Amino acid sequence: MCGIVGIVDAGGVSFPLYYALYALQHRGQESAGITTFDGERLHKCKDQGLVADIFNADILKELKGDVGVGHVRYPTTGSKIPENIQPFNFTFQNKKISVAHNGNLTNTTELRKKFEDRGQIFCTSTDTEVIGNIIVDELRKTDKMEDAVLSCMKNLEGSYSVVIMINDKIYAFRDPLGIRPLCIGKTREGYIVCSETVAIDALNGELIRDVKPGEMLCISSEGVKCTQITEASSHGHCIFEYIYFARADSVIDGRLVYDVRRRIGESLHQEAPVDADIISPVPDSGIAHATGYSESSGIPYREGLIKNRYMGRTFIMPNQEARENAVRIKLNPVKQHLNSKSVVLVDDSIVRGTTSRRIIDIVKDAGAREVHMRIGSPPIKAPCYLGVDMPTREELIASKKTNDEVCEQIGATSLHHVSLESLIKATGIPNDDLCVGCITGEYPLCIKGEKGCPRHIEYVAGTFQSDLKDF
Amino acid sequence: MCGIVGIVDAGGVSFPLYYALYALQHRGQESAGITTFDGERLHKCKDQGLVADIFNADILKELKGDVGVGHVRYPTTGSKIPENIQPFNFTFQNKKISVAHNGNLTNTTELRKKFEDRGQIFCTSTDTEVIGNIIVDELRKTDKMEDAVLSCMKNLEGSYSVVIMINDKIYAFRDPLGIRPLCIGKTREGYIVCSETVAIDALNGELIRDVKPGEMLCISSEGVKCTQITEASSHGHCIFEYIYFARADSVIDGRLVYDVRRRIGESLHQEAPVDADIISPVPDSGIAHATGYSESSGIPYREGLIKNRYMGRTFIMPNQEARENAVRIKLNPVKQHLNSKSVVLVDDSIVRGTTSRRIIDIVKDAGAREVHMRIGSPPIKAPCYLGVDMPTREELIASKKTNDEVCEQIGATSLHHVSLESLIKATGIPNDDLCVGCITGEYPLCIKGEKGCPRHIEYVAGTFQSDLKDF
Amino acid sequence: MCGIVGIVDAGGVSFPLYYALYALQHRGQESAGITTFDGERLHKCKDQGLVADIFNADILKELKGDVGVGHVRYPTTGSKIPENIQPFNFTFQNKKISVAHNGNLTNTTELRKKFEDRGQIFCTSTDTEVIGNIIVDELRKTDKMEDAVLSCMKNLEGSYSVVIMINDKIYAFRDPLGIRPLCIGKTREGYIVCSETVAIDALNGELIRDVKPGEMLCISSEGVKCTQITEASSHGHCIFEYIYFARADSVIDGRLVYDVRRRIGESLHQEAPVDADIISPVPDSGIAHATGYSESSGIPYREGLIKNRYMGRTFIMPNQEARENAVRIKLNPVKQHLNSKSVVLVDDSIVRGTTSRRIIDIVKDAGAREVHMRIGSPPIKAPCYLGVDMPTREELIASKKTNDEVCEQIGATSLHHVSLESLIKATGIPNDDLCVGCITGEYPLCIKGEKGCPRHIEYVAGTFQSDLKDF
Amino acid sequence: MCGIVGIVDAGGVSFPLYYALYALQHRGQESAGITTFDGERLHKCKDQGLVADIFNADILKELKGDVGVGHVRYPTTGSKIPENIQPFNFTFQNKKISVAHNGNLTNTTELRKKFEDRGQIFCTSTDTEVIGNIIVDELRKTDKMEDAVLSCMKNLEGSYSVVIMINDKIYAFRDPLGIRPLCIGKTREGYIVCSETVAIDALNGELIRDVKPGEMLCISSEGVKCTQITEASSHGHCIFEYIYFARADSVIDGRLVYDVRRRIGESLHQEAPVDADIISPVPDSGIAHATGYSESSGIPYREGLIKNRYMGRTFIMPNQEARENAVRIKLNPVKQHLNSKSVVLVDDSIVRGTTSRRIIDIVKDAGAREVHMRIGSPPIKAPCYLGVDMPTREELIASKKTNDEVCEQIGATSLHHVSLESLIKATGIPNDDLCVGCITGEYPLCIKGEKGCPRHIEYVAGTFQSDLKDF
């Protein structure tokens, strides 16, 4: 998973990009990068690590210009290779170009082959370089970005929210199903397009709206021009953004993530009530769900586990035994809240089950009489091909075990996952407009070896256009 | 403020010290250090920065030995000077010695002069070096640590929880009033003495008890020996540890800090109820208080501000205006929770008032109809001379303004501080055993130019001794 | 200017590459890189800085494989851009490829345009990426490197010694005129191809011979195969390698550079004798020349200036005045050797004249009665388009001033440059086989706006082949 | 060994100190430090590594003030301990003090004991802290530096050139025998006192004279005051400074080191002539000697070994075999100069013999017919107790083997060391005023277990005083 941002602002963009990436840091902690354009050349800085570690005031001052893009990257295969760190920068016929991509393509190999057959080399192993090539290949023919993005939407399979800077303009587009989020906001002297609304908030900007699935925006010092490139029969918004990935204070496709999670918590109580002493979240991911459960049930919300706020990615463990204790150092049980108590423990999801097992052990070691596990998602049974870093089916505990077996394995007194129906209801999004592939194994587009009900895409490039003049 | 730890453990101490300092990181983020003794020589590493940034596996492996001390330091005057970073290491007559100190002495100048008069030089500007000198000066006469600590307690004025390693033994003592916390726990193959119980939890150890005011412990591979050095008429536990400083999941002098804060929140509701829509904490410091207010009032607990979990100390701001926006990047308002709502905003304390003003601005910008500020401490009116980094009286907003004036200045709809009576009741500690100097301006020991009711100290060194054999 | 190296050795190549780059460090101090291939994937490390600063034992251990290439880069325009640091790594149809290039192309723009016209993007602004593209473009048609290198030699204009690794083979070729050096040697369990023989010496290897102009080598675990791709009517070895650039202990095209310089020094004496007290070099570049002058004249060789061996590139100067003093800190005059003496000061060349002026000032300040400047090259009057980082004609002091004017400007008592005739004689290379463009303004290939006598190139690819079996 | 410097200059001292330490870098590469005083407080920076790596413009700008001291340290036991890095800074009765020391004390243990007996702690394991204590101990009684330095000279045994800053004054003194060098020079707006004249040259300053043995200087904005503290019957200047340690372009006690070495080279020819083809130095230490031999014999001076100018301390070698090859990477043989030749190889000294063996191997591998080793010092047979980092007697090859045995072991055709008589004559210093302990085993002061003829010291403090007004 990744976070992307593009900003055009007459007051300079490096500091705003930095603040925006700070706000999107949860979408990727492995590496980060910023590229700006000063009217003549690109200025670039990207490296492994957190935004706070990579940039400083001197570097930001060197990143000159009123246009720029930024990226944070989640640790996935290949991400440690320096050339794979985004944005991906290149030149083409005197155009200076920088691309940032959030999502995952499922036909990269075929696309790369097509280019290699005509003698093209690849400098990285990213999907992003493939996207850059498709765009450039079309641009050289018609020099129209509408055509280039249309070519992307015809050729790319998978999920892609893309921000691309070509000299002093930023283009942003979202795949026809709108799988990954993307939204646009107004800044003091310009515009920002970014993965989540929290990046707009960080600039004290104003959310305009989500970028529509299949839509392309062109942002320049002149304003924003919107062009609908495709119309899909229905969409495929990722359910996991609501369950876990997005920040609780983001608004995605019109829904505050915090409230979706709180409503899931309410459903968890209604579906599986317990006469417990306290409701405790697994921090931080279960907090919103737990407040919903607490409110609905009237049982006190009390933190049974306190998270160490200073745990970095660099936490060192000398051996396996220590690694198992790491959860204990990260999450400290509050014995006085747990001892002899019946506890409802609320978390967002169970993936492999190992972390849940360790957390329940800690809660029981602290004296809890009963540990009722309540999970804010249905069982995760299938892999994600569209950008969330999920393990294989074999590693997903729910893909092979019944609810009772999982309950026993993680050591809970009882276990309940929210129903898919309640989950969808909590999002307020029609069933058909969501991708719930990781839950049902059915995906909104063709994936080799998997079932699904692919959406129908109509190519309408250029027929609808508008300006975002009123902002 | 600082955090200190000493460990004797047959399995090696560098990794346990590192985990313990991680758990105590909230007590000091400016610098950190570890010193160990391997039977022959000291191994040392200390630097500016966070525990996670200073240490790595290679360094920890070099810190050999089964005895060691550690320290984290809060940014106070002089702390950026490398030689002031603790532990303070030195040698004396073939003894290898390392001292870590939490607290603040009020008679350092006089004590330094005494030593200088006989020709002594000072390598640092810390209180810790003075403590080291007093101990050594007595040791050379009688070679008994009981006498050395007695000399400390007779000569040192102020607060001091001290851990000192002399070759393979660790001595720990707490000033006669017990101003700063200090506790002892059992680890797998040894013992840990530390500022807060969370450090014991981090090692999966077991809390034995607090070190008593005026008590000295000697920890070695043979076990723990306890000696009472002084008896005070009453004590002076710092109230601010409960209000703000200590971690919520620590147990200090028998009280879970989280529960003290929750009870304060209940009192805030009983003293100043509001018919509001939501109760929101200022994260993270107001969370426990806010749950108490919510439970007592029945008004939903809902996060109106979400804290960015990645904000480091290195956050960069190009200018004053940006600095004012920093609070906005750190705390993002959840507009949907605040818009048109009457909000009870709960925080632990108001010091200068500037942060409160900015937070209330943010909440109101997000559309809140009313912002009722509820504060988990009485007005802070006087400076702290005993280790908490408070501003001067001039900078303390409550030292010169009435409650109404403060309310207006910070822009709240209403403002209420918990009463001192309720606060003390929430701690469950007798009035006489607390230091509430920052609230009342009366201190439990003589401070030049300030009022107070100094405790009577009786020197009883060596009369009571015991072993902690049963652990 | 740059230094390149490729090694195939059954004992692993990362340490040998590191030693070789150390030996070639004088050819480029701006950045360095190593790429190795372990039979499956590339391992890469490259960064700005000196070889000693970029690599360490841990990094070298990660650079696995028995095949690899390395590069050091001189500070030229664009070199500070991280993506321009060589080797240039890319993939093509499952081939892992890494290219290192020494030289300069004069038709890069046209070549890039050709590729861009068919939709190709460029990730760097280096000539090296262009070379990679030409090779791959031919490879996909015939899959024969002979054809790919032939295509290079037909299309590339300028100077290029190239080492390219394609999976487990290394190909090396030198432009038809042999402008930049390239040689091959035997290592313990394999072969090394590199810019200068000193890199072979560093591995305790044995020089086999120079790579011939227009020749391509293929080095693998099976041995070395040589193919002559072009035959030129005559060559164009860079005279400046002998004058200044190459290490004195290198043997280029059969000539020990040290001896060429010593013979130049002898000619300087014969052409312009002085009845001086001492002969002093400007260290280190004038040492060999000065020994030749001393031997020929019988006047004692004595160091009048001692070079500070610790001057790094990071030497700091607070202002312009200090910058002018920098020469003084780098070169310390030995007053006792200079005071009241007539000094012959020998240096390799004069470019802008500013450094010579400062050095002569220093020598005169130290009391020298006369300073006779003797220069190991004719006046440098024209720019270099073929890889040496020369200033423009306007900045070259000799392009606009007579010998007497230069002598006066630098403040010398007398000034003599070695004659072109003597210089060429000292190299022992036929006039026609040298490029002396920077001296005469006539180049051995077509350069827009410049005069020259381009060599005739015959393409003979594949007609002569041989194995280097006997090594 | 170490290098020290103190500067008082109205134009600021941090940059001059930095330049001076650069010039003295050869005296110590392990660590470096600068302390300045701005009229109120000390500014400090010290770390492990080279001067170029530790300091940068930002740091130097922070080192404010017109008074300061600096230090470079050679790798000796304990030097890697951060607190041992000099200058040693401390405070005493509102005085800010910083000490830098070059030399070695032989009675440190006794002196430390004396202070410990009265309760003093030690923060470092350096001689420097002991010196600081002695000075302060006397100062508090009389507040006169003459007395404090007299106390040093009465109590300290060994070698010591010391620079000490006390607030805005710098005091410099040299032990009664003048074992280590120390000199004073005039800068633009002040004065510099430093280990070698090259540091004065680096500031474009003017050498005034050497500090006399037993003399103390007081340097302030008012000028320089000189006080003779002791008079010794004769001195003990270290012979090894002339043989190897000092820079060739330094003038010590009136003698240009380069010329001393050149005269040694002449003596080597006169004592042991060879009918050889070339004279080659082992660079860089044998260069001056070799020019002397070449001039005296008329045999051409030609570099048979070229030193890699980029070898840093960080050169990496994977294993023992590689370590043995390191000499080969550092020193590259010029085969064309050596093959079939009879070579006179000139070096400054032989210590363990291992390096000589490897160098001779290299020269013979390069084809030399005969290798006649000529050494610019007599055999080194005894350890140094006075500051030069020599190995023990067991490791000194000449302490147990005859000249013929050494010759055979290092593989030379013939071996000759210069005679002690010629060496002393080359220095031009009377025999009695030199320390030649490492050659004869007889030292100019009492060293337990060693022979010697200690000088008689007379304490004359204060009787001779003068101002250096004329500079």
Quick recap of the structure?
Chain A is of the alpha+beta class and 471 residues long. Helix content of chain A is 30%, strand content 30%. Chains A, B, C, D: In the C-terminal section; belongs to the purine/pyrimidine phosphoribosyltransferase family.
Present the secondary structure layout.
The structure is a homotetramer of 471-residue chains.
Chain A: E1 2-9, H1 14-23, E2 31-37, E3 42-48, H2 51-54, H3 57-62, E4 67-73, E5 88-92, E6 95-105, H4 108-116, H5 127-142, H6 145-155, E7 158-166, E8 169-174, E9 183-186, E10 190-194, H7 197-202, E11 206-210, E12 215-220, E13 223-232, E14 237-238, H8 239-245, E15 251-252, E16 255-256, H9 257-271, E17 278-281, H10 287-297, E18 305-307, H11 320-330, E19 331-333, H12 335-338, E20 342-347, H13 354-365, E21 370-375, H14 403-410, E22 414-417, H15 420-427, E23 434-435, H16 437-440, E24 442-443, E25 451-452, E26 457-467
Parallel strand pairs in A: 14-23, 17-20, 20-21, 21-22, 24-25
Antiparallel strand pairs in A: 1-4, 1-10, 2-3, 2-4, 5-6, 6-7, 7-8, 8-12, 9-10, 9-11, 12-13, 13-26, 15-16, 18-19
Family (chains A, B, C, D): In the C-terminal section; belongs to the purine/pyrimidine phosphoribosyltransferase family.
Binding site for [4Fe-4S] cluster (chains A, B, C, D): 238, 384, 435, 438
Catalytic activity (chains A, B, C, D): 5-phospho-beta-D-ribosylamine + L-glutamate + diphosphate = 5-phospho-alpha-D-ribose 1-diphosphate + L-glutamine + H2O
